[in-house]
Amino acid sequence: MKPIKIGLLGLGTVGTGVVRIVQGHQEDLFSQTGSGIEIARILVQNKSKERSISVDSAKLTEDYRDIVDNPDIDIVVEVMGGIEPAKTYMLEALARGKHVVTANKDLMALHGAEILAKANESGCDVLYEASVAGGIPIIRTLVEGFSSDRITKIMGIVNGTTNYILTKMSQEGADYAEVLKEAQQLGYAEADPTSDVEGLDAARKMTILGTLGFKVNVALDDVSVKGISQVSKEDILYGKQLGYEVKLLGIAERQDDSISISVQPTMVKKSHPLASVNGVFNAVYVYGEAVGETMFYGPGAGELPTATSVVADLVAVVKNIKLGVGGRRAFVPYKEKKLRTDEQMSAKYFILLHVEDKAGVLARITQVFAEHEVSLESVLQHPNAANPKAEIIIITHDANQASMKQVLKAFESLDVINAIKSVYRVEG
Ligand code: NAP
Ligand code: HSE
Fold first, then answer.
1. What is the CATH number of the domain that holds 171?
2. Which of 290, 323, 356 marks a domain boundary?
3. Same structural domain, 182 and 107
4. 82-115 pLDDT per residue, tens
5. Is 334 inside a domain boundary?
6. Same domain? 119 vs 38
7. 316 C-alpha to center of ligand 1: Å?
8. Are residues 292 and 146 located together in one domain of the fold?
9. Global pTM?
10. Contact 301 CB / ligand 2 (< 6 Å)
11. How many C-beta atoms surround the C-beta of residue 428 within 10 A?
12. Are residues 220 and 261 in the same domain?
């Protein structure tokens, strides 16, 4: 029986892991699919580059047409990353009837709808499990595991770099800049860390999770994004004293038929399972109307964890080919998109203010909350030897987002407030 032939686009971190797993797990892969799986050609940028894995040099090519136009190749695995030329290669492969597996979150978040439409038109599968939370099978879980339920909330720690930084800041009381530098030296954070630390990487992943969870075509622009570069060690310290850990959370919520998606540093109650997800690990919390609370935890990146998800997709595509159902199962969102307005959203907030330390200040501040109908859970004044002014921490009850914006606007011109030092959403 002829093996299924794979064309691999990319032999970097993930591509190397894919080769290792496909070569090392042949017997198990055969048992599950009834077919051999052979990596026939591999596209790289530079054939002469030294590799950490030994591959037959005749398989390497620098010309994508050797894969995309090759009639022997059944499945294209795209692990080269970036938008172009990966998008063009993928669309050309689909046009030639080849199934595609990808780990490319950037491409799926920005052009997923176009790629899936092309897959359906061509009768091909496109699977992308590794694009969110690396080794955690969260995409299959949302599409298949929760197919009988209606998801109302997805909260994710979906970026390992920022979770590593926040964990270190929390555990060692270190500064953001100091930990970022160390993370870069250790190779956790990239030389240009903007996409990770400013929340863009997490936003792309939440675009994919929101689309799958709510069956709505979420666009990247629908996600409001704030990263961790303004998180201070003082915020983390005060949060800890009050029973919270600061985490960069992607939060996707649905109420009736309207949705909202955001990424922001969030104070997570220590008793919530997301608060104890530390280091480079990822976790996705999913709340379904019927199932209630669930959480999925594991490595969000790395050679073998990510390749595990890629090869699991490969197994699924091979099974579809063998069953003759390839290309009939691509998930396409079918619900109308309605975004929640500020008036429809509510959350608890943590606010740290620097204020004048004199009589009547608290009354002025609480009056502003009262005027905008925001109810308070706690108000604490912290003595701080380093600050001659007073530091006040306020935690609200669930507050309407539009009202909270008005409160913060009013604070900007309130003479007793010297600075609105920080504002965090609170969860758990
Ligand atoms: P990587 O280590 O940078 O490897 C990229 C590979 O693609 C290299 O082999 C490179 O060739 C090749 N390549 C890049 N551009 C090319 C071009 N224009 N033409 C031909 N070959 C090209 O990337 P990676 O970390 O494996 O990531 C791959 C994908 O997986 C990305 O979409 C990433 O977001 C996603 N992902 C990665 C991880 C992770 O842990 N790394 C986790 C989840 C998802 P050369 O080797 O010759 O330079
Ligand atoms: N830069 C990403 C992270 C890699 O830190 O999680 C995995 O997508």
1. 3.30.360.10
2. 323
3. no
4. 999 999 999 999 999 999 999 999 999 999 999 9
5. no
6. yes
7. 22
8. yes
9. 0.96
10. yes
11. 19
12. yes
User: Does residue 278 sit in helix, strand or coil?
Assistant: coil
Q: How many CA atoms lie within 13 A of 33 on its CB side?
A: 28
Within this chain, do residues 189 and 119 fall inside the same structural domain, yes or no? no
Name 256's Cβ contacts closer than 8 Å, sequence gap at least 6: none
- Domain containing residue 88: CATH number: 3.40.50.720
Nearest-atom index, ligand 1, CA of 82: 32
Domain count, the chain: 3
Looking at residue 329, what is its pLDDT?
Answer: 62
The residue to which tokens 């987002």 are assigned: 401
Domain assignment of residue 318, yes or no: yes
Within a domain: 332:
no
Measured from the Cα of 306, ligand 2's closest atom is 7
Q: How far apart are CA 410 and CA 374, in angstroms?
A: 13
The closest residue, in CA terms, to atom 7 on ligand 2 is 301
Domain span holding position 110: 4-133+303-323
Helices 160-172 and 176-185, packing angle to 10 deg: 130
- Pocket probe for ligand 2: among 108, 162, 201, 303, the residue whose CB has the most ligand atoms within 8 Å is 201
395 in the same domain as 310:
no
Strand partners, 261: 223, 252
Say yes or no: CB of residue 299 within 6 Å of ligand 1. Answer: no
Q: Which ligand is nearest to the CA of 106?
A: 1
Q: Are both 67 and 169 inside the same structural domain? A: no
Cis previous bond, 299, omega within 30: no
CATH code (residue 357): 3.30.70.260
- Beta carbon of 159 within 6 Å of any ligand 2 atom: yes
Which residue's alpha carbon is at the smallest distance from atom 2 of ligand 2?
159
Low-confidence ranges of the chain (pLDDT < 70): 329-330, 383-384, 387
Catalytic residue among 87, 205, 226, 247: 205
In a domain, 333, yes or no: no
The question of whether 205 is a catalytic residue gets the answer yes
109 lines ligand 1 (CB under 6 A): no
CA 132/CA 205 separation, integer angstroms: 5
Atom nearest to 51 CA in ligand 1: 46
Query: Quick one: pLDDT at residue 327?
Result: 87
Gap between the Cα atoms of 145 and 295, Å rounded: 13
Q: Are 280 and 196 in contact (CB under 8 A)?
A: no
In whole angstroms, give the CA distance from residue 397 to residue 375: 6
